[in-house]
Amino acid sequence: MLQQFYPQVFHDFRYELNKDMQIAAAHFIDHDDAGLCRETHGHTYFINLTIAGDTLNDSGFLVNFKALKEEIHGIYDHSLLNDHPEFVEGLPTTEVVARVFWEKVDARLAKQGNRPYCLQVLVRETPTSYALYRPKRDEHQ
Ligand SMILES: Nc1nc2c(c(=O)[nH]1)N=C([C@H](O)[C@H](O)COP(=O)(O)OP(=O)(O)OP(=O)(O)O)CN2
Ligand SMILES: [Zn+2]
């Protein structure tokens, strides 16, 4: 079962939606601090995306849940994160994964006429560790 409780983002948009998903992915952290995580290993990542905006599109959606899943699950599921160019320079730590996922999702939202915003990305790597990425207001395109 997917996680049901999330850290809340405070905002004054009219609408908010949250999309949960899981991806099976491998990674390695090529750094002396990483210990055993220097070796390639896998996780079932749990991801929660928080999207908000003031207007709906002509389908009555803030954004289609399926579009959000395509943008993350469709690209990273059953892959080695280190193989993706976006992780070649920034090591795929939980924090960096959360930021990269935000960049992808918010860039997709920027193409919509009703312009929803991704306000928070939560990435849970293990049952005992997660990271959040919350953009600064001026980071949105
Ligand atoms: N700030 C970060 N610290 C660590 C990261 C990270 O991404 N950001 N990653 C790791 C490892 O990759 C590991 O996958 C996760 O570490 P950890 O939560 O310590 O894993 P455990 O299952 O061993 O946790 P326990 O609570 O001790 O069982 C390390 N650090
Ligand atoms: Zn790991």
TrEMBL record:
Pfam families: PTPS. Its EC number is 4.-.-.-. One of its GO terms (molecular function) is metal ion binding. Keywords: Lyase, Metal-binding, Queuosine biosynthesis, Zinc. Zn(2+) binds at H27, H41, H43. One of its GO terms (biological process) is tRNA queuosine(34) biosynthetic process. This is 6-carboxy-5,6,7,8-tetrahydropterin synthase. Belongs to the PTPS family. QueD subfamily. It is an enzyme of class 4 (lyase). It comes from the Bacteria. Pathway: Purine metabolism; 7-cyano-7-deazaguanine biosynthesis. Binds 1 zinc ion per subunit.
